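re: the backbone from monday

yeah here it is again, tokenized this time
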């Protein structure tokens, strides 16, 4: 690792996209299609790095979040209000549902360790996330999330190695793109669970807090180059573990709990415990970042203070956590909700990405505006996301 490197806001992004939704989506991808869709995660990581670099640059250079930049710089009233309504709706509806899934997933992880699924777990875990956010310390949140990301890395990668994957199929799936029959929605979901729209708001705002000088962009980029691939490695490990445990066998999977239980005959009790710990870390990390990202997004787009101890900021994340606890406590089956939320995320991504590309080409960026190469790469990501989104809509219409 290069001298002077330290984990930073990009670790928050990795903590945000490696949640129970990722565990469920990646497990279903591996169980249903083996290693064949690993290439989609490679694309997802590259796409995430392209977009999150722009988000971090926007935050460091302008000292604004993406929401604040949209509110201040979009002059056309209809377009500005359309953007505000879209962001508010996406944050309140999307992140509230995600929070329910996050707390459910974290509860499943704890249940895997203690041996029972207690009804009080979502309340306790929601309270833990709220307690950390209430402290209002960015440094504390960053350290906690770094620890959780490292825990996920150790548990999921160790589990992957314990199940002894088919290395030939692994590298073929990683390097040779293919679309097995019926896999389009799964590809959309894998992209949607990695390239998450609200992470653009989270990364811009947190980078502005971490670094105040444009000269510090190199630190932001080094953070990005390590943290995002580390998150991608976790996703790859989960897909491959599910492929080894389920693909081509007379077994069915409905969620991460099934994956955890199925690992015992393959790799013993250690794998089951590691998967439970990984699921707990994934759920708790996302239970912190989803409300945090919501508060950053709404504060910026509505012109409220982004102070972590400010009342509007706190009311936003309190609302998201409360709704999430209610959803998790009702014990609604999480897999279907999380799955379709990931697909919806993939459909929303192109719109938010276009706002980001526009912001990074605005005069407010000065000499740090996008180069033509950065614009080409970003637009390729947007076009691919649009194409995949259109195919998912077509597949859904055929099902109806």
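seq for it, each position gets an aa:
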């Amino acid at each position: 690792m290069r001298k002077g490197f330290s984990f930073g806001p990009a670790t928050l992004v990795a903590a945000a996209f490696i949640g129970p939704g990722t565990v469920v989506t990646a497990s279903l991808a591996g169980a249903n299609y083996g290693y064949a869709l690993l290439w989609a995660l490679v694309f997802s990581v590259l796409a995430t790095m392209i977009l999150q670099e722009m988000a971090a640059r926007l935050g460091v250079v302008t000292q604004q979040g993406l929401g604040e930049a949209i509110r201040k710089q979009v002059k056309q009233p209809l377009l500005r209000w359309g953007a505000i309504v879209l962001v508010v709706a996406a944050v309140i509806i999307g992140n509230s549902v995600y929070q329910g899934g996050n707390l459910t997933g974290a509860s499943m992880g704890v249940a895997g360790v203690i041996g029972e699924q207690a009804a009080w777990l979502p309340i306790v875990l929601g309270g833990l996330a709220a307690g950390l956010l209430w402290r209002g310390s960015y440094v504390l949140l960053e350290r906690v999330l770094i620890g959780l990301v490292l825990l996920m890395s150790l548990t999921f990668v160790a589990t992957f190695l314990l199940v002894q994957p088919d290395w030939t199929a692994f590298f073929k799936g990683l390097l040779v793109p293919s679309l097995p029959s019926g896999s389009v929605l799964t590809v959309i979901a894998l992209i949607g669970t990695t390239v998450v729209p609200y992470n653009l708001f989270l990364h811009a705002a947190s980078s502005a807090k971490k670094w105040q000088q444009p000269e510090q962009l190199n630190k932001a980029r080094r953070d990005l180059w390590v943290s995002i691939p580390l998150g991608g490695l976790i996703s790859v490990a989960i897909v491959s573990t599910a492929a080894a445990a389920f693909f081509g066998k007379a077994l069915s999977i409905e969620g991460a709990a099934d994956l955890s239980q199925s690992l015992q005959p393959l790799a013993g009790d250690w794998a089951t415990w590691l998967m439970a710990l990984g699921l707990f870390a994934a759920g708790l990390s996302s239970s912190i970042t989803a409300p945090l990202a919501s508060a950053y997004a709404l504060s910026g787009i509505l012109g409220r203070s982004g102070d972590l101890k400010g009342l509007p900021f706190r009311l936003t994340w309190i609302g998201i956590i409360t709704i999430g606890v209610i959803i998790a406590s009702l014990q609604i089956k999480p897999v279907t909700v999380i799955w379709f939320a990931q697909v919806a995320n993939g459909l929303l991504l192109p719109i938010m990405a276009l706002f980001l590309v526009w912001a990074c080409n605005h005069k407010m960026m000065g000499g740090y505006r996008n180069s033509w190469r950065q614009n080409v790469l970003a637009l390729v990501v947007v076009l691919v996301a649009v194409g995949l989104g259109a195919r998912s809509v077509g597949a859904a219409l055929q099902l109806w």
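The longest helix spans residues 77-114. The chain has a mean pLDDT of 81.
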